[in-house]
Amino acid sequence: MSTQTQNLRGPSSIMGTVRERLDKTQIGGRPPSYYLSGWRLGVFFLALALLFPLVTDQTLQVTAISVGVYVLLALGLNIVVGYAGLLDLGYVAFFVVGSYTVAVFTGGILQRSDGTVAEIRQFPFWYLLPLAALLAGLFGVLLGAPTLRLRGDYLAIVTLGFGQILPIVFQNVPWFFGQLGMSALPPPDIGPISFSDTGNRAPFYYLTLLLVVLVILAVSSLRDSSLGRAWVAIREDETAAAASGINLVRTKLLAFGLGAVTGGIGGALNASFLGAIAPTDFNFGISITILVMIVLGGLGSIPGVIIGAMLLRFFDVYLLGKINDTVHSSPLVTGDGSPLHFLATLDFNTAKYLIYGLILMAMILLRPQGLIPNIRRQRELAGIGAAPEGVSAVGLFEQEVAGEELAAVDVGEQTEYVGEGSEALGREDHV
Predict the structure, then answer these.
(1) Which single residue of 102, 364, 401, 414 has CA 20 to 30 Å from 324?
(2) Segments of 362-428 assigned E as strands
(3) Structural domain boundaries, residue 414
(4) What is the pTM of this model?
(5) 178 assigned to some structural domain
């Protein structure tokens, strides 16, 4: 077996040894990894998520709702950055559009230039959710249109400017009450299910979970479609993708638009849950936080992005405050002569972006593929390449979708990569 494949599979590592031993254990005629992979693992975690409100308090449920909103945002940005390879640093703009759509049309008021209030028609949340997604998608296309010729750093600068401009617009246009912001209403009650009861956040939690599941299914379908393969082709080599007949304009605009749709859904859900928004709440730090989430989890990997968003948002909303209180109350910090007294004036909540930067640097240096990497990207970082010569690229894609691990077979001077149940893949071409 070649050295490259050993680096990929790591049989000599501790994890490789544990995996080999687990594979020897049979449950119902199959190894444990069979039950903890693919859609079966997703169903297992979904069952745990459904039981979550039954075993937790309101504080953790509120935290879980906030985590769910950022999972939506991370899934949307993953379309643009992880699939299409377009670095978007202004993703917070679509979050703003979704939030203000709900705030304007549930609050039912706008401010005139003379300071008086104008009433407008109110709509329930169920109508505004698709409207927020549609408007955010439109803004995504408007952002993508002037950036079609840009790549790399230049694209990042333009999207950064867009993300900075839009909150300033809402802050200075008098219709939206400036820095005071606007209030938003929760979804209307459905029979005995009340979304406005602040003492019971379980209904809102289940609504968030439903939206997350629907977005995951939609993004998975996009990844496995011809459009998803076109995005990956643009990410790998834009010139080669164009030479292969891919319409770069349409494909890029779809990436920006569909990614923005998810951001709009997250913004609508966030405004309805919080009940009030202000333009100062939407800063550049949100875009960076979401980008760190997908880098931490693994670019292009749906499970990785979900795990990255959950870990980082839970750390921000829940753990960071606990760490801050624990450190400041520690005897090693409180006393004047204590060895760690310099930490008494350090607020970990304000230093979170420094922590995020350190996490990002550590991931880039130690595990650039992310916690749960995409198989294709893992091959690229291992130096193997996306489609070795003599192997069907279609077969490789099918293996990637199925989640099969690649094995290497040396044939002559070439190395062909095949998976379980596909031993003949590429060999007939080679012959």
Answers:
(1) 364
(2) 407-411, 414-418
(3) 387-431
(4) 0.80
(5) yes
